[in-house]
Amino acid sequence: MKDKIIAEDVSFYYGSNQAIRNISLKVKKNSVMALIGPSGCGKSTFLRCINRMNDIIPETKITGDIKIDDVSIYGSKYNVTALRRKVGMVFQKSNPFPKSIFENIAYGLKINGVKDKYEIEYIVEKSLKDTALWDEVKDRLHKSALGLSGGQQQRLCIARTIAIQPEVILMDEPASALDPISTQKIEELIQVLKKDYTIIIVTHNMQQAARVSDYTAFFYMGELIEVDKTEKIFTRPSKEMTENYITGKFG
Amino acid sequence: MQTHLEMDIENIKIKMFAMADLAIEAIKLSIDSLKKGDLELAKEIIKNDSKMDRLEIEIDDECIKLLVTRQPAASDLRFALAMLKINTDIERIGDLATNVARETLKINGAPLIKPLIDIPRMAEIVVKMIQSGFEAISEKDVNKARSVLPMDDEIDELNMQIYRELFTYMSESSKNISQSLSLIMVSRALERAGDHAKNIAERAIYYIMGDDIRHQNPKGI
Q1: Contact assessment for residue A168 and residue A201, using Cβ atoms and an 8 Å cutoff
Q2: Which residues on neighbouring strands pair with residue B48, listed in sequence order?
Q3: Which of B76, B206, B208, B212 to mutate to test the interface with A (most CBs of A within 10 A)?
Q4: Chain B touched by A180 (CB under 8 Å)
Q5: Domain for residue A46, yes or no?
Q6: Residues of chain A with pLDDT under 70
Q7: Do the strands A87-90 and A168-172 form a parallel or antiparallel pair, or are they unpaired?
Q8: Which domain holds residue A45?
Q9: Which domain CATH number covers A75?
């Protein structure tokens, strides 16, 4: 499988504080990579480097390079709007727009220039079906998205993300605020979505990382300690520090 | 301070080692009873096997509880998986000691047709294999676990030697047949105990290193 994302020697600074240190990491196309590590280890910062979300935070600096499909996303001519269309993101707290369920998904399409009403309807339905939400909301598409449950709202946010057909989906603890059933649905969804997308997920829940991901990267104090197939990380990690973290000896 | 996970693991370890001690004791006593024709001792070995059976169930339950409630990972996960299997092996070794005791009862105190040399030797090796396997687990010493593997070959050779010898006895006189068959059964039980002791060492290697070395040529390790 081809490498979709290649990070080369990436360091990131909040002012003078170096949050991540010389991270080099490859993510294969159509795979799920979990980023694990204790709070403040730099995993979310690294995730946000992949769609240049950190650009909007003042006094930050990045060195090194990240390539998607072999093209440097930090190149001077790179179109950041196009990047964020290509790299969707789902956050810890679901953040639907205060609009109808339909509009939540249609909005992204409209600002991306899709005008055909039937095409929009088709994509809204398909996105909701792909996120297993269609049956639950098909009779209330024009009611406010804020009336949905937390788990439904999160799946709506994922539907909104995939509606504009990104290639990569970044998830920052997408299920940490959800109940077990909703969590399970999100996890199952990740398995389905990886057929079409490359997914990177930050999670504090190690069992979740073990369940959903193909590869796991362990971060500690801004450094990438170990990255390997998930099964190997959780049964026989190579580094003692990884072992200590996943067996709960610190973190 | 120990975490609950560490306490659970420690608890399983204590029971597992108690089980190993019982199995070693059973093997040693079963050979003593055979050598001396001690029928009371043989009966006691058979009776005591229930202690191991109970421990086996307790250890299985605790391993399952550990998996469900603590969701262990890495070496802790390998520990639980290895113990579930070692538990079965060590319980089988206990059963095989009772097989030896049952043959002692069949021989029923009759004088032995030959002095026992190779059979006690086999039992000594089995005991050594179990001890080394468990020391390897306790010390996380993979070389010690590996040292157990070739010992099984020695047991297999002794077993074949005993077979040949007893076939000769049987062909010499039909009076020898009954006891020869009993001794063959004893030898067979010890050979099987050796196989289980080897399994324990292999699972110890899995626990320590994460490598699965089953069904491989031992010379290649």
Answers
A1: no
A2: none
A3: B76
A4: no
A5: yes
A6: 251
A7: parallel
A8: 3-95+166-246
A9: 3.40.50.300
Does this model's pTM top 0.95?
no
Better-predicted residue by pLDDT, B63 or A250: B63
CA within 13 Å, CB half, A5: 29
Q: Sort out which chain A residues have CB atoms less than 8 A from B209's CB and list them.
A: 236
Count up the domains in chain A and report the number. 1
Q: Do A235 and B3 touch (CB under 8 A)?
A: no
Strands (E) in chain A, as ranges, are 3-14, 17-28, 32-36, 60-68, 71-72, 87-90, 168-172, 198-202, 215-220, 223-229
User: Which domains are delineated in chain B?
Assistant: 4-220 (1.20.58.220)
Between CA A123 and CA A164 the distance in angstroms is 9
B76 touching A, CB under 8 A?
yes
Contact by Cβ (8 Å): B139, B203: no
Q: Which of residues 187-206 of A touch B (CB under 8 A)?
A: 206
pLDDT at B218 over 70: no
The answer to whether residue A183 sits within a structural domain is yes
| Residue A52 domain flag | yes
pLDDT reported for residue B211: 82
Q: Does residue B172 register a pLDDT over 70?
A: yes
**Which residues from chain B sit within 8 angstroms of residue A207, using beta carbons?**
71
List the one residue out of A246, A9, A115 whose CA is nearest residue B210: A246
Quickly state the pLDDT bin for B220 (edges 50, 70, 90).
very low
| Side-chain half-sphere exposure of A189, counting CA atoms within 13 A | 28
Query: Measured between CB atoms, does A246 come within 8 Å of chain B?
Result: yes
Q: How many angstroms separate the CA atoms of B30 and B42, rounded? A: 6
The two three-digit tokens of residue B14, written as one number = 């204590």
Could B78 and A246 be called an inter-chain contact, meaning their C-beta atoms sit closer than 8 Å? no
User: Do the domain assignments include residue A100?
Assistant: no
